[in-house]
Amino acid sequence: MTTSTLVSAKGGAGTQRRPLRNFIDGEFVDGGLPFEIRNPATGAVHAVAYEADATMIDSAVAAGRRCVDGEWGQMPLVRRRALLAQVAARIEERFDEFLEAEIADTGKPRSMAAHLDIPRGAANFRIFADFIASLPDEAFEMDTPDGGRAINYSVRKPLGVVGVISPWNLPLLLMTWKVAPAMACGNAVVVKPSEETPSTTTLLAEVMNEVGIPAGAFNVVHGFGPGSAGEMITSHPGIRAITFTGETRTGAAIMRSAAATTKALSFELGGKNPAIVFADADFDAAVAGLARAAFLNTGQVCLAPERIYVERPIFDRFVAAMKEKAEALRPGLPDADGTDLGPLISEEHRQKVLEYYRLAIEEGATLVTGGGVPALEGLAAGGYFVEPTIWTGLPQNARVTREEIFGPCCHIAPFDSEEEAIGLANDTDYGLASSVWTRDLSRAHRVGRAMNVGISWVNSWFLRDLRTAFGGAKQSGFGREGGAHSIAFYSEITNICIKV
Ligand code: NAD
């Protein structure tokens, strides 16, 4: 067996290009067309991945099937759980390598990746290894027509081979959020990480071998969407389910492709998330919470509020306070002193965000702050940075207030009544998350419940108990993952009915 060597890479110019090969049936395999991976903080190429072809996808699916039918699927739960806990422990042991790989792919500030991406990536394995042991199965006793009794009980079995297609914004965290419960349920996975951020998924393949996960249970195929590894997974007859996080229109394409083989689908898609700030809210907490929410990860968080509605008496003060927070953010290299704002993921994405910055003005916005590209020197001058940006004054039907931008920006609008705020917040095709700020307990419950979203926060944002349901309403997705919801999605349930 060969292994890839992921050497430490700070992502600067002249850094060695790491080879990121496909991982199939427990081995890194050669072959596939190479494509370059850039560090978005500098624009420098730091790795080369190899696009999997149809033969590799077939091999990965076949290996997965053998593993589900064999050692992995048949393994006693106690042993499978122990192995997944070891995956978590090994990620923690190789923490610095995961950190360097994630920073090189995303350019995000080291502090963020160190506190969120890598620890949560490891935690996903530990949590689902624990959780699956404590989940009750269903049992129902019933009367029978002949006056006797029957008992029903359900058992959970693996679905088979699960395709995992993940995005670039929180690469390790969002990928393991799917891989960990899928594997805990005894499935094999074929993972296609985003073509922008394949490094930590490749490193995870090494970890799987190191702790003794059976060959074929975890496979990694690199590549793109249409006509590439992504589409090949979604149309493959040997794959029983697709779990996908990404854009809504990609979800629509995957649905079409998966329809012919009637795969189970779980989709976590885009959002245009609202926040509502009432005049009675803890003002400083609301400003701090929503500035973090709007600008964390340079706004590249699916849950970020791009629409903030503020009760009129505190509107001007709130806008001024948010402006101050935005202007205090320091863009720069992941390791530079004081950096708290990373780049966008790619030049292409920067062009998309800048197009919205331009459009906002065309649509009549008042620019409160930002709107352009910061002047940076040194290596960061080649990075894909944009300024944190705030607008006011747009109508509810502007494209900038309706379409997901996925950048460090938000629009702030005033409201006069609770009813109006609820109406404005829910006036969207999306329904992922919301954040309501108030000190009034009854209103907190009332408005929190009135949000047509999958995740409704009150006086908080991004607070996650991994046992709770996570997913989107409307065009933000369908199905829920998290805790028992994940276990339900990744299991085939057989009801056994016994006449006694
Ligand atoms: P994307 O849809 O462009 O890509 C996601 C993944 O899908 C990538 O691996 C890509 O290669 C693959 N892909 C693209 N086209 C495909 C196709 N036709 N068939 C199969 N696979 C295909 O999304 P992105 O730009 O990587 O991520 C940003 C988006 O993800 C935003 O819309 C964001 O809101 C969303 N997102 C949602 C959540 C959530 O939990 N709801 C979390 C994070 C990101």
TrEMBL record:
Look up keyword Oxidoreductase and say if it applies.
yes
The protein's matches in InterPro entries, at most eight in alphabetical order, are given as: Ald_DH/histidinol_DH, Ald_DH_C, Ald_DH_CS_CYS, Ald_DH_CS_GLU, Ald_DH_N, Aldehyde_DH_dom, OHmuconic_semiald_DH
Q: Which GO terms describe its molecular function?
A: aminomuconate-semialdehyde dehydrogenase activity
Entry annotated with the keyword Nucleotide-binding: no
Task: Give the matching PANTHER family.
Answer: 2-AMINOMUCONIC SEMIALDEHYDE DEHYDROGENASE
Q: Where is the active site?
A: 268
Q: Which UniProt keywords apply?
A: NAD, Oxidoreductase
Enzyme nomenclature, EC number = 1.2.1.32, 1.2.1.85
> What Pfam families does the entry give?
Aldedh
Domain Aldehyde dehydrogenase per the UniProt entry, residue ranges = 35-495
Q: What is this protein called?
A: Aminomuconate-semialdehyde/2-hydroxymuconate-6-semialdehyde dehydrogenase
Recorded family membership: Belongs to the aldehyde dehydrogenase family.
Enzyme class, UniProt record, top EC level: oxidoreductase
Q: What is the lineage of its organism?
A: Bacteria, Pseudomonadati, Pseudomonadota, Alphaproteobacteria, Sphingomonadales
